[in-house]
Amino acid sequence: MRKKRLQKKHQVKASLNVPRLAKAGSSLTLEIFASKQKLGEITLGRGSLFWTGKGRHKSKRINWTRFAEMMDELAYGK
């Protein structure tokens, strides 16, 4: 029996900025790709995260409470 090789569709590149651990300015940036096309970029910090979509020049700030609500709704419905 021959096994099928799965092709990777998604790729994530990480960049870590830590001037001082747990201080303002510390962040993790993830670039997200699908089929070699950039979907967007997410920057995770202490107080919130920032999302910059494909082709956008401005990022959107989302606080952690709102992000948790959004993820719960996506995962579990209303």
Structure description:
This protein is an alpha+beta fold. It has one domain. The protein has one helix and five strands, in the order βββββα. A five-stranded antiparallel sheet has the order 1-2-3-4-5. The protein is extended and about 55 Å long. The mean pLDDT is about 85.
Round the Cα radius of gyration to an integer and report it.
Answer: 16 Å
The CA-CA distance between the termini, in Å, is 44 Å
Number of strands: 5
Residues in β-strands, percent: 35-45%
Q: Give the averaged pLDDT, no decimals.
A: 87
State the strand order across the main sheet.
1-2-3-4-5
Order of helices and strands: EEEEEH
Short description:
The protein is an alpha+beta fold and 78 residues long.
Structural topology:
Blueprint: E1 10-17, E2 27-34, E3 37-44, E4 48-53, E5 60-63, H1 64-76
Antiparallel strand pairs: 1-2, 2-3, 3-4, 4-5
Features:
alpha+beta, 78 residues, five-stranded antiparallel β-sheet, 5 strands
